Amino acid sequence: MLADSLAFIFATTLMYSAPLIFTALGGVISENAGVVNIGLEGMMTLGAFVGAAVGYYANDAWIGFLAAGVSGGALAFLHAVACVTFMADHIVSGIAMNFIGPGLSLFLSRFFFNGATQTLSLSLDVKIPRPLNGVFEQNGFFDMVFNQYATVYLALLMVVLLWFVLYRTRIGLRIRAVGEHPKAADTLGIDVFRIKYMAVIASGVLAGFGGAALSVAIVSRFSATLVSGQGFIALAAMIFGKWRPGGTLAACLLFSSAQGLTVFLGRADLQRLLPIPSQLLAIIPFLLTLAVLVGFVGKSRPPAAGGVPYEKE
Amino acid sequence: MSNVKRGVLSASPIFRTLFSVFTGLLVGALVLFISGYSPLKAYRVIIDGIFSKPSYISYTIIYATPLIMTGLSVAFAFKTGLFNIGAEGQFIMGALGAALAGAFVSLPPVIHAIFAATAGIAAAALWGGIAGYLKARFGVNEVIATIMLNWTALYLNNYIVNLPGIKRPAATATAFILDSARTEVLPLWKISEAGKLWRAAHPVWQDILRTPLNVGILVALIGAVLCWWLLNRTTLGYELRAVGHNLDCAEHVGIDINARMICSMAIAGGLAGAAGAFHVLGWTRQAAELAAMEGLGFDGIGVALIGNASPIGCIPAGLLFGALKYGGSKLQFALRAPIEVINIVIGSIIFFVSMPKLTQIVAQRLKRRRLGRGEPHVG
Known about the structure:
The complex is a heterodimer of chains A (about 325) and B (about 375).
Chain A: H1 2-32, H2 40-58, H3 61-85, H4 90-112, H5 141-146, H6 150-168, H7 170-180, H8 182-187, H9 192-218, H10 230-240, H11 245-265, H12 268-273, H13 278-295
Helix pairs in contact in A: 1-6, 1-9, 1-10, 1-11, 2-3, 2-4, 2-9, 2-10, 3-4, 3-9, 6-7, 7-9, 10-11, 11-13
Chain B: H1 2-9, H2 13-34, H3 39-51, H4 54-79, H5 87-104, H6 111-138, H7 142-161, H8 193-201, H9 203-208, H10 216-233, H11 235-245, H12 247-252, H13 257-284, H14 296-306, H15 314-328, H16 331-335, H17 341-353, H18 356-372
Helix pairs in contact in B: 2-3, 2-17, 2-18, 3-15, 4-10, 4-13, 4-14, 4-15, 5-6, 5-7, 5-13, 5-14, 6-7, 6-13, 10-11, 10-13, 11-13, 14-15, 15-17
C-alpha cells in the first residue's frame, strides 16, 4: 500500500514535470545570455497549440512536437529582434509575447478547427509513446514510476545536455560571457548579437517543446485553458533554480511533486480517510513553493547583464 | 554625434504610443487579411460596436474601468521598481472581499457600498503586502511570490464561494450583494415605474441605463490622479520612487527600504483590489467560482505598458484596451472572425511600444522627409 502510494506520487510528479522542465530550461538559456524571457508562457501556449494541431493533421505526435519547437522558436525570434536589435525593454517585449502567443493560438484554432478554441484529439495510438512500456513487471513499483511518456525522459536528458553545453563547451562559455559582461565578450571578438539571437530562439524552441509535452503527451489536444499559467510557473522555477539547469530541475520537481501529492490526496480512496476540499488541496503546490523560498532563501543572483540591452559602440 | 543622439531621443512617448497603436492595428488587419477576412469590414464592425449607440459607449467604459485600475496597480509598482504580476490575484481578493462584505453585512446605502469597497481593497492590499513582506523580509523575488499568490487567491476564492452559507443555491457563486452595497447608477429607480416613464422620455439615457453603468469609472479616474499626486507630490512618493530608482542610494539617505517595499506592494494590491471590488459592486453583484484566471489583472500589465507606466497614461490605455475588447467581441457574431485577433493587436501594440529605438528611427525618417520637402518643421 505504501509502495503503491509512493509510486503513484512519483509517477505523477515525473509526468507533470516534463512541460515545466522544458520551458524552464528555455528560460535558463535565454537569461544566461542576458535576455530576460518573461514571454515563456506565450511561447509555451503557441507550442501546445501547434503541437496538437500539427500532430492531429499529420497523425503523428512527433511531427507535432517538432513543429511546436519551430513555432516557439519563431515567436522567440520576434522577442530577439525586439530585445537584441532594437534594444527593447525585455519585460515589455516578453509581455507582448504573452498576448501574441495565446492570441495567435486561439485565432488559429478557431480557423483550423471550425470555430472551436480546442483542437480535435490525436488518436491514442499516435500519441507520444511510453518507451519503457513492458520493460518492468506490469503494475509493479518500477512500472508505475518509470513507464512514462518519452517526453519525460527527453526533458531530463535536456537538463544534462544544457548543463553540458553551458558549463563544458566553448559556446556555453560564450553564452554566459555575453550574459555577464557583453562588452568584455565583444572585445574578445565574440559576436554578442548572434549569441543572443541563438540563445533566445533556443529558449523559444524549448518552451514550444514544453507546450507540446502537455498537449500531445499528458493530454492529447490543445484547449484554451491547457497551459494557463504553467509558463509562469516555469519562470518561477528558473528563478528559484538560480538560473542554472540543475537547480531549475530541482525546482520543477519540487513543484510537480506538490502537484503529485495534491492529485494523490484528491483520490477517492484517500478522500474517505482524509476529506480535504479539493480547492484547498489545489493550493498546496503554490504555498509549498512559497514556503520553500522563504526557508531556503540565499539571495538568487541573475546574470549580471540580464535585461540590459547591449549597444555596440 | 551627441547632437544626432539627442535628435534620435527626441521622439516623444506620445508619438511612440500612437505609432505603436497604429502599427498594432495594421498587424491585426494583416492577420485578418491573410485569413481571408476583410480588415476594413472588421474594423468597421469594431468601430460601430464601440460608438454607434450610447449603450455601446457605456459598455466600453464599463469594460475599461477595471482595466484602468489594474493598469494603475502595475504602473504604480513599476514606478517603485517592483514588477507586480500579482494584479490578477489581488483582483480576485478584492472581488471576494467586496462580495462578502456586500452580501453579509447590513448597512445603510452608500455607507454599505463604501464599506464593501474598503473591505475588498483591504483584502487585496493585504494580498499585495504579503508579496512585499516576503521580498523585504526574506528576499523572495516578487515575480515568483505574486505568481504563486495568484493561484492561491484563485483556489481560495473557489473554496470560499462554495462554503455553505456563502454559496447561493443552484449557483457556484456567492449570494448576491445587498442593494444597499450596489454602485450601479440608480439600479432600483431605473427599473421602477417612475424611472421607466422618465427613460421613455429620454431615449439616449434610456439606452445608456440599459447597461450596468456604475461609479467605478469615477473611482478609476480619481485613482489615477491620486496615484500621480502620491508619486510626484508627496514625500512618501518620492521615497517610493527613490527605492525603485536606486536601492542602495535610498538606503544610504536613510529611507527604510523594507517598509517602503511593503507599502508599495500594498498600494498596488489595493488598486487591483479596487478593480475587483467595483467590478462586483457595480456589475456582477457576486464573486463566482473561477475555472481559470479571468485575465483582468494580466491585461492590466498591458495597460500599464501601453500607458508608459504612468498613472495618467493608464486612462487612455485602459479605454483603448476596453474599447478593443468590447468592440472586438462583436467580430465573432458579425463576421464569424475569431475575436482573438484583438489579443494579437494588443500584443503587437505592446511589442512596438517595447522598441523605442524603432520608433525613433521612424520618427527621424518622417522628420527628414518633411524637412526634405521644405515643409515647416513641426514638433
